[in-house]
Amino acid sequence: MIEVKNLHSGYGRIPILHGINFTMKPGEVVGILGHNGMGKTTLLRTLVGQIKTTQGRIEFDGRDVTFASSSERARAGIGYVPQGRDIFPLLSVVENLKMGEIMRGGESAIPEMLGHFPVLKDLLERPGRGLSGGQQQILALARCLAGRPKLILLDEPTEGIQPSIVDLIAEKLGELKVTLGLGIILVEQDIRFIRQLADRVLIIQKGAFVAEISPDQLYDRETVDAHLGI
Amino acid sequence: MTANWQGNGGLVAATVLGLALLLALPQIVDPVMMIELTSYVIMAILALSLGLIWGYGGILCFGQSAFFGIGAYAYAIAVINFGDSTIPLLLSIVVPGLFAALLGYFLFYARITDVYFGVITLTVTLILYKVMGATSGSQYVIGVAPLGGYNGIPAVPPLNLPGRPDAALSFDGLFYLSGLMLLAVYVGLRLMLKSRFGQVVVAIRENERRAELLGYDARFYKLVTFAIGGAIAGLAGCLFANWGMFISPDVFGLAQSAQVIIWVIVGGTGTLLGPIVGCFAIQWVATKLGAQQLLNANLVLGTILIGFVLLVPKGVVPTVSDALRRLKFRPYVATLVEQRRVP
């Protein structure tokens, strides 16, 4: 599905990523763990084309997308739910969802999304800015899924969200991973959420992956301390 | 979306009201005022063009008068050469539209935004002003149309029925045509903004980066919006050349560029009605001020602008809409408050 080789990127002259390598199969969930400032968000933003790749190669579905624009990558099937959700505040919930599906065309994905996230049904006409943090997170996820991506990148989806909504998101993503073969790259500080969803976990330090562990190893205090110092 | 509450019913009502005004005004307004009104209507089309690209596209263009002037010159030069006005009318829309597309291509695809975009578009307008001003010699002729430098092109032939140069449009006819054009542009833009294309344009204004991450090439959508705005401004330029039967480089001047922005600020961005209201109001005030000697017109207009920026920053139409919406919900809120007071 995605193959990243020797990826380097950064902000202007400041390098952040130093040779990231990994591959993913369809339907796989990869968690990325690391301290703040280690390059987790930079990696996601580089994968979606918001930050230029300075060296290396990104191949998605057999196609080189290293220098493709953000919109081309999105059309190829890479979805992104950033930290802070980035919903359109003045557009209503249904207009936000339409924005997600317009890109793909064809049959409307909105009924399907409302089936997955019924909480949105009663909020369709409400402007995005009028939603709670949890509702905004669900909307951001539903809007991303309405574009029927093959791979989604989630940047701290549980940040500031109540536990019941975290569980709902985990449950839905787990379902979609199986039913649609959806690939997920999950950057998260919430170890419980990663354990719930990820097939494997990559530890990032100073812009490079330094270890790969299984989610079960996150139950082991020694392993967690060794890799994350927490 | 801001205008959504109005829905299709609002659009039909606006169309009916517009048509009624168009038919009624010539019956109740004196001929001198009709001349003024016709220019207001034409300028309202220009204001709508900026209302689209700035208010909905989020593109701050300081040089909308460039497309207005290009449309006027394209019409004047073509109609003097062709005699019949059918093709010149089309050229007055197509040429500025293409010019906007070309300019927009270089600016949007170079990711030039915000104030830099404004400065470049203003510079283009002022360059056009200088260039057209420098065409006063007899060698500056396109076909049989002399460009005339700062003296401009006088005696621009009026619009006529298609294929019949002898059937020229009367002054009343120009008012009706301008009014219909204003209505058509307004309705067309309302429908466009309700379409998927329009939704994407608004979403890009809201959050360009997010829209790109959903798969939309923001540069392309902005380019198309900008070109449509340029074409509409060109149409206004053509009607303006008909109104005065004269065109000069003044249409590219700083004053012309600035006043379009003032109309939109006063009327309110993010609505289509706002630029029309702002244009009519400011032009009416300017006309009234011009007819008296007591106060300096520019001083008063400047004070009005500063007053609006400080006190009504959203503009007339959005402020009134918000107030009406609050009034509409006030009884509901009062009931809720009352219910909470009941032990």
TrEMBL record, chain A:
Keywords: Amino-acid transport, ATP-binding, Nucleotide-binding, Transport. It holds the Pfam family ABC_tran. Residues 2-230 form the ABC transporter domain. It comes from the Bacteria. One of its GO terms (biological process) is L-amino acid transport. GO terms for molecular function: ATP binding; ATP hydrolysis activity; branched-chain amino acid transmembrane transporter activity. InterPro entries: AAA+_ATPase, ABC_transporter-like_ATP-bd, BCAA_Transport_ATP-bd_LivF, P-loop_NTPase. SMART domains: AAA (SM00382). Belongs to the ABC transporter superfamily. PANTHER family: HIGH-AFFINITY BRANCHED-CHAIN AMINO ACID TRANSPORT ATP-BINDING PROTEIN, HIGH-AFFINITY BRANCHED-CHAIN AMINO ACID TRANSPORT ATP-BINDING PROTEIN LIVF. This is ATP-binding cassette domain-containing protein. It comes from Aminobacter carboxidus.
TrEMBL record, chain B:
It is found in: Cell membrane. One of its GO terms (molecular function) is branched-chain amino acid transmembrane transporter activity. Keywords: Cell membrane, Membrane, Transmembrane, Transmembrane helix. Its main location: membrane. It is a multi-pass membrane protein. One of its GO terms (cellular component) is plasma membrane. The chain crosses the membrane at residues 40-59, 66-83, 89-108, 115-132, 167-189, 223-248, 260-282, 294-312. InterPro entries: ABC_transp_permease, LivM-like. PANTHER family: HIGH-AFFINITY BRANCHED-CHAIN AMINO ACID TRANSPORT PROTEIN BRAE, HIGH-AFFINITY BRANCHED-CHAIN AMINO ACID TRANSPORT SYSTEM PERMEASE. This is Branched-chain amino acid ABC transporter permease. The lineage of its organism: Bacteria, Pseudomonadati, Pseudomonadota, Alphaproteobacteria, Hyphomicrobiales.
